[in-house]
Design a protein that fits this description.
Oligomer: single chain
Shape: globular
Distance between the termini: 22 Å
Radius of gyration: 14 Å
Order of helices and strands: HHHHHH
Number of strands: 0
Length: about 110
């Protein structure tokens, strides 16, 4: 299970054809990686979030996992949308600062 599918991203981006599926898939991967990095998630934490796994010991509780998943979905969709719309002149510093605000609770370990 992927946190966000290409079809979900296309719906968010309001893309009706499959002409840009490959590019959207690449942007989605880049958006996920950027959000994981800004959110300071370890590979294990990202695997939990991406696959919806609640471990028996350690990691996120079920309630925490739901909150982190929803927050990451918003951040990833926002990032993919931003990169899609600003292909030519993206302000990566501004994008990163916005993501830091969106992912504050995750970054600071509040969840």
């Amino acid at each position: 299970m992927a946190l966000i599918t290409v079809e979900e991203a296309k719906e968010y981006l309001r893309v009706d054809t499959s002409d840009e599926d490959a590019m959207i898939s690449i942007l989605l991967s880049s958006a996920e990686r950027l959000c994981v990095d800004v959110g300071r998630l370890s590979e294990e934490q990202w695997k939990q979030v991406d696959e919806g796994i609640v471990p028996e010991v350690g990691g996120y509780t079920e309630d925490q996992l739901k909150v982190v998943q929803e927050t990451m979905k918003v951040a990833v969709l926002y990032t993919a949308g931003y990169l899609f719309e600003h292909r030519e002149e993206a302000d990566h510093h501004g994008l990163t600062m916005t993501l830091r605000s969106l992912l504050f609770a995750i970054r600071e370990g509040v969840l």
